[in-house]
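Please, structure for the following, as tokens.
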Amino acid sequence: MAAEKPAAIGIDLGTTNSCVAVFQHGQVEIIANDQGNRVMPSYVAFTDADRLVGEASRNQAALNATNTVFDAKRLIGRHYEDAVVQKDIKNWPFEVANVGGKPHIQAEHKGEQKQFAAEEI
């Protein structure tokens, strides 16, 4: 009997929305989140108590704009001085810092100022 192949996980990290799928037993299944949605907004928010993702993050964005991150995909693999990065920074309510030539998102989380690479978001 042939050994069963391990499951493979795929992540579709979109600028606007993201989803996660698993391939196992010859089929692909898109995984639903806690709200039952198979696609969620590509947002992450930091608060004094939590890190919020998806709908929860987007829903509070107006009240916590400087600590709510979106478009993080646009920073992956780029240098801080790239013209595209500099143009985007002007349109975002959150801060982006130059850390060793790479763009890092600044946010206050649990009362502390922190910096995150786009890949961490």
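The beta strands are 8-13, 17-24, 27-30, 40-41, 43-46, 51-53, 68-70, 95-99, 102-109, 112-117. The domain at 8-121 is CATH 3.30.420.40 (Nucleotidyltransferase; domain 5).
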